[in-house]
Amino acid sequence: MTPAKLLLVDDDDLLRRSLSFNLEQAGYAVMAASNAEDALAIAAREPPDLVLLDIGLPGMDGLDALRIFQDKIGSPVIFLTARRREFDEVLGLELGAEDYITKPFDQDVLLARIKAVLRRTQAPAHPLSESEPVEIGDIRINPAAHTVTVGEKRIELPPREFDLLHSLALEVGNVISTDDLLARVWGAEYVGEPQVVYVHIRWLREKIEVDPHDPQRILTVRGVGYKLMPHEPRAP
């Protein structure tokens, strides 16, 4: 079996060498670069299965590089960041990174995250995508076409938000715990990290609720989780 190809991009020479060695010992084929410009050139020649990308790079910033990896290369990205501000973490996910991990990180945690992302992105089809279309009130979800409409309005959702909404729709009216949502949408490795769900629920509400601060569709059951309820807006 051909090992997955990882591209590690970090300007810390010691970390880059030691992490490359450890990833190779774990069975991955590793390419490495100290800046985004070199990394993009490498990826253009040999697209990686996954990019481990430091945010704070010299020259082109990791957030700018992420956009190019998405538009030109199509490789999934895990951010490596020494910045502890929530802004960086949330912004990275909002721009389309698959995950982030804050330095210093545990080697086993990083390997688990890598496996989880590769399993999601290399799977021939997500189980949810094989389901029939679902209608919940004025929301229509078509997994095969990966489309969502609210009323007559088409809503564009990235994959993780789509799967989160679909998971809630498949159990309409029932409360799903945060850990169950993590396991279903992100994988078991993420159980115990509820902030991932909180952030994506907030983004979903901004897109499908009339008033995200007074949600009528995705409801919070405090201390338990979330549920999706049918909602038909009143005619004016």
Plain-language structure description:
By secondary structure, the chain is an alpha/beta fold. It folds into 2 domains: 5-122, Response regulator (Rossmann fold, 3-Layer(aba) Sandwich); 128-228, Winged helix-like DNA-binding domain superfamily/Winged helix DNA-binding domain (Arc Repressor Mutant, subunit A, Orthogonal Bundle). Helix content is 40%, strand content 20%. The protein has helices at residues 13-25, 36-45, 62-73, 86-95, 107-122, 159-169, 178-186, 195-208, and strands at 5-9, 29-33, 50-54, 77-81, 99-102, 134-136, 139-142, 147-150, 153-155, 176-177, 218-221, 225-228. The strands form 3 sheets. The chain has a 5-stranded parallel β-sheet, with helices on both faces. The longest helix has 16 residues, at 107-122. The N and C termini lie far apart (60 Å). The relative contact order is 0.09. The model is unreliable at 124-130 (pLDDT under 50).
Write the layout of secondary structure elements.
Layout: E1 5-9, H1 13-25, E2 29-33, H2 36-45, E3 50-54, H3 62-73, E4 77-81, H4 86-95, E5 99-102, H5 107-122, E6 134-136, E7 139-142, E8 147-150, E9 153-155, H6 159-169, E10 176-177, H7 178-186, H8 195-208, E11 218-221, E12 225-228
Helix pairs in contact: 2-3, 6-7, 6-8
**Main β-sheet, in a few words?**
5 strands, parallel
**Spatial ordering of strands, largest sheet:** 2-1-3-4-5
CATH class of the largest domain: Alpha Beta
Ends distance: 60 Å
Number of extended strands: 12
Q: The CATH topology of the largest domain is what?
A: Rossmann fold
**CATH architecture assignment of the largest domain:** 3-Layer(aba) Sandwich
CA-based gyration radius: 19 Å
Number of DSSP helices? 8
Structural class label:
alpha/beta
What is the N-to-C succession of helices and strands? EHEHEHEHEHEEEEHEHHEE
Q: Which stretches are poorly predicted, pLDDT < 50 over at least 5 residues?
A: 124-130
Beta percentage is 15-25%
